[in-house]
Every structure is written in structure tokens, then in C-alpha cells.
Amino acid sequence: VRWYRLAADQGHKSAQFNLGGCYSKGTGVVQDKAEALRWLRLAANQGHAGAHVNIGAYYMVGTGVAQDAAEAVRWFRLAADLGLASAQFNVAKCYRRGTGVAQ
Question: pLDDT (tens digit, 9 = 90+) per residue, 47-100?
Fold first, then answer.
């Protein structure tokens, strides 16, 4: 966690993403979903597709944020636009089920 934090504090998007994961799971730090989301947003703001997907998942289930399927789909689409196949699959599932989008 120490090295992730050092790199994350210097703006390294993968380190920010990984540090967000540490806070999300409580790996090496006290679990803190709000802090996880903060680091994931920093990574997402730099175009980290995985961070977009994780934020979308937070919104889909209401982890650390109000549950909002439409907002989840927005984040999944951002990652899908970056070419992340799992995000493209998430968007397709949302359309198939009518979750956060019109069917």
C-alpha cells in the first residue's frame, strides 16, 4: 500500500486505481468505500477504464453512493468507449435487462 500511495500521490493513474482497490477491499488499510471511490475517481479522471467500471459498479449496487443504475450505465459507457470489453458487456447487459436504460 505504501508504494501505491506514493505513486498515487504523484498522479499515477494505475496506482490510484490499485489504491482504490485496497481501500475497497481493506487490503493493507482499513476498509473505506468513500476513500476507495475518491481514488477511483482520480484514476478515472485520467482515463483509467477499470476505474470507470468500478465506479459504475459502485453506483449499480449503491456502494458508498446512492444506488443509481443510470449513473452506473454512464460510467460503464465511458469505459466501453475506451475499449474495455468487460464494460461493453456490462452496457449490453444493462440494455438487455432494461437496467438504467430504456429497453
Answer: 999 999 999 999 999 999 999 999 999 999 999 999 999 999 999 999 999 999
Whole-angstrom distance, CA of residue 25 vs CA of residue 23: 6
Buried b (16+ CB within 10 A) or exposed e, 12-46: bbebbbbbbbbbbeeeebeeeeebbbebbebbbee
CB 71 within 8 A of CB 63: no
Closest Cα to residue 76, out of 92, 97, 62, 98? 92
Q: What is the DSSP letter of 101?
A: S
Amino acid residing at 13: K
Kindly tell me the sign of the dihedral angle through the C-alpha atoms of 78, 79, 82, 88.
Answer: negative
Q: Report how far apart the first and last C-alpha atoms of the chain are (Å, whole number).
A: 42
